[in-house]
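re: ur question from yesterday

yeah so i grabbed the chain u mentioned. its 306 aa long if i counted rite. heres the sequnce exactly as i have it in my notes:
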Amino acid sequence: MDLSFVIPVFNEEKTLKELHNKILENVGINTYEIIFIDDGSKDNSYDILQEIAQSDKNVQVIKFRKNFGKSAALQAAFDKAKGDIVFTLDADLQDDPAEIPKFIEKINKGYDLIAGWKKHRKDPITKKIPSRIFNIVTSVIFKLKLHDYNCGFKAYKNEVIKSISIYGELHRYIPAIAKAKGFKISEIPVKHHKRRFGKSKYGFERFTRGFLDLLTVTMITKYERSPLYLFGIGGLIISFIGFIVTLYLAIMKIFFGMALSNRPLLFLGVLLIVVGVQLISIGLLGEMIVYSSKNIEKRNNNKLEN
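ran it thru and got these structure tokens back, copy pasting raw so excuse formatting
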């Protein structure tokens, strides 16, 4: 299998047949499979997908009983995808399948993941401004400059999608997660069309969830194997500040007879020490969990080899 196309669908009944035809026009001589994931659509999307699957033996349809979100839909299809190159694109026809050969050409130059960049984006300003802020912040934090992390049009080598696991809103951060695993990332400008049917699924709630997931990705990419570095450093700093505060108060009490019963600073110093110790303890527990999981993984590998 040369190409796999992974397409989440949520209430896109008017675009599906045209999208399928446009993909077929651009696969060239490559063998292909198309995996549609009906993410709890309430219109006739699933019936139309069934019709497409009956007419094209290379089409698979996964149906969710309710809307679980884009990450869950992508992960379900990633587990099944067999293509050497795996494409993800949205079902609303804003992504242009005519760009498929450009992605393949870029992948063949040695990259593992190619992200689309909607350079001339056909969306309202209420989506453009938050997206620009999000992309700048994410690029700085993960030291991977991409103009459009959230573009659904991407191409991956199969080994990339098999090495990651996504949930929540983590689909936005797949390039950052892939970079942390050592894969080579690039981007190309892509055409972006104005939405012709349906309505956008984007809302302020998704924007805020995306930034909260930023904390999750930071944790799993930078501190997954060394949680003590995250919690321990913070704990040491806080405990040190608390120690300095209590040492100052002890000196004032011993040498100058200062009364401490009415000093809120004493309670702050003790609190900082306690919180610091707790953070260090959390880091140590995290290290124990990582160590135990690695031992379990090693034993399982040894059993398989034997």
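noticed a couple things. Residues 88 and 109 are 19 Å apart (CA to CA). also Strands lie at 3-9, 32-39, 59-64, 85-88, 113-117, 154-157, 185-189.
anyway ttyl
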